[in-house]
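Cross-check.
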Amino acid sequence: MARSPGAEAVSIALWWGGLTVLLWGGGHLRDAPASLVACAASAALLISLGEVAHWLRCRIREHWAAARRNRTR
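Predicted model, tokenized:
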């Protein structure tokens, strides 16, 4: 299902904010606090990696589906 670019941006922003707060709060709970900026950067990196992995997974799935369609012809 395709989403609009605006909905995609909101989804990523919510994930980024939530993960930033989770990393920041987790650091404070463990008495190893990091700055909010460092946590935001780490969250951005993790989300970027997740988005790239999702893109690759979709591309690979499309590739194998096309290969199966071509084999059955």
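The helical segments are 5-29, 36-71. Residues 13 and 33 are 23 Å apart (CA to CA). Passed to J.P. for a second look.
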